[in-house]
Hints:
The complex is a heterodimer. Chain A is mostly helical. Helices cover 74% and strands 1% of the residues of chain A. In chain A, helix 1 packs antiparallel against helix 2 (26-46) and helix 2 runs antiparallel to helix 3. Chain B has a single domain, classed as Helix Hairpins. Chain B is 76% helix and 2% strand. Chain B has helices at residues 6-26, 30-55, 59-89, and one strand at 4-5. In chain B, helix 1 (6-26) packs antiparallel against helix 2 (30-55) and helix 2 runs antiparallel to helix 3 (59-89). The longest helix of chain B has 31 residues, at 59-89. The radius of gyration of chain B is 17 Å and the shape is elongated. At the A-B interface, helix 1, helix 2, helix 3, helix 4 and strand 1 of A face strand 1, helix 1, helix 2 and helix 3 of B. Strand 1 of chain A pairs antiparallel with strand 1 (4-5) of chain B.
Amino acid sequence: MDTILFIICAITAVGCAFNLVLQKHPISSALSLIGVMASLAVLYLLLGAEFIAMAQMIVYGGAVMVLFIFVIMLLNAGTEKTSGKSWFAQIAGFPLLSAFVALLAFLIRVVLPPLRPVEFGSWVGGTAEAIGMLLFTKYLLPFEVTSVLILIAIVGAVVLAQKEID
Amino acid sequence: MGHVPLSWYLILSAVLFGCGIAGFVYRKSVITVFMSIELMLNAVNLSFVAFSYQLHRVDGHIYSFFVMVVAAAEAAVGLAIILTIFKNRGTLQIDEVDSMKL
Lengths: 166, 102
């Protein structure tokens, strides 16, 4: 059951990621990205990370993607124009990228120590309670710094969006 | 039947990261390039959570939570920058924004 669910979600994620790269219209890419995020949330649940799965759906699938689609609609972004790509990129791009991914996969299989098999429910550590305990004790300083970062981002976004540069 | 090797998750993360790199380099629309960056961040989050499962510790979840927060802040600022570029240039194609090119 776990294997079937993993394979379904992995194929959905990879297919949506390829679709993101290959589609010409930004709105199709945005919808594919939502597909990737939803299937990743299921994979997080399989790995026992309940809180991260919910945060993924709410923060990424909800807030960030709504922001993206809002900007695409606001700017009326159409199909992107194909301009001349260099012959080197056309010939060597895909083989180089596949070589990179194959090298990473080889290293994962060979170099890493024996990894645990993943079984749903065998370890449920990522509850909101456990994450909250760690976040407000060991990681309290990074948490507070993050709040300052978000404040800066809010102010920056407001200033940038209303500035008139001529 | 019920066991999935953890390396499959890591390889899936590598494949998604590769797709993100391809989109980042290959696409010409600013918004799609930005979405490819989000895809790469998601791929890295998956490997954080996978290693967290391997070590049976929650620290990896916290890192991936911080990555999410930073990605949300980055999306807000980046989309504001895209809005400003569009207001000034009237285009979303990266190769048409080339005023620093010699």
